[in-house]
Amino acid sequence: MKKLSTVLLSLFLTIKIISAQDLDYLNRSSFKAGEKITYKLKYGFFTAAEATIQVLPTDIKFDNKPTYHLMVEGGTSGSFDIFYKVRNRYDSYIDQKEYTPYLYTENIREDKYTRNDKARFYQDQRKVVATKGVFKSPVSQTFDLVSAYYFARNLDLSGVKIGDKLSINYFLDDEITPLDIEYLGKETIRTNLGKIACLKFSPSIRPGRVFRKDSKLYLWISDDANRIPVKAKAEVLVGSINLEINTVSGLRTPLKTQ
């Protein structure tokens, strides 16, 4: 139960990462202020947690440049909430043109454990100034997990082929880490919103307290102009868990369903 929030973050946020290398931007941003998407995290037949991602309106600027305010909230629900309550929030402020982050914050509330961390990104200096120190990056584009997803949504994936592996550098748990994702092709997913045509990916994962050494993680992202996460499935130490889209609103382009 204690690791449920780790599972939620691993599934919900790693669904958002695709490479920034050698890929072209789409003609316009795939999202806008006011977008809101909710998800349910299921363990077996039970809804263990719920999550929300939003693009919030903001007047905050960094280096005199306008930003998008991205927010992710996740928490346990139902009987899981009785035994171990989780209420976590992640915020990221990104450049409106380059989609790279300026500031990332975490507000963690897990039962009696609490933590508040922040990280300031200096892309031109290839460094991240965080709560626990200064971290150097090997590249000029480094992301937190929230900003990585929104950056990825503005990439043109038309040239990606089955078997291609993509990579990105992100800052998490006081280290900068590359993540590799393999593209597996197209698949239509049945959801409570209808059938949605998707692009399927499989990211690399770290074995340990949540995932086995041979665990697999599969991610489905809508194959339309929105590029929103639709579903994720992961094998964990005991059984498997699924992240499923629940509601959408405020999308720049109407979601295509069948």
TrEMBL record:
It comes from the Bacteria. Residues 1-20 form the signal peptide. Keywords: Signal. This is DUF3108 domain-containing protein.
